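Prompt: May I have another protein with tokenized structure?
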Amino acid sequence: MQVAILMIHVAIAIALVVLILLQQGKGAEAGAAFGGGASQTVFGSKGSGSFLAKFTAFLAASFFATSLALAWFATQASQAPEAGIPDSRLIEQQQGIPSLDDGADDGDNTAPVLEESGG
């Protein structure tokens, strides 16, 4: 399920980039002077502005929803599983191996001193 949502998420991201690049900016009215016959387009005389804007908003909402779904999957995956690899301290306790942070002291707290050879 997570892989399917991830694939949809990537497809929506690519579609958003394409749609945003297809849209005309606010200063694009000057392009109509160079042969932009708006009444003969597929989207009618209004042009494709409102359709592309609505479709971009729909894709942005879908991108947001898939982002939330993927975040939810990530938080569920980070929780400790019921069965799996146990903690190392638990294994050491079961096997009777003293760990470094259990307070056991062997009495020798001095660090070894390396003697320098004079030369």
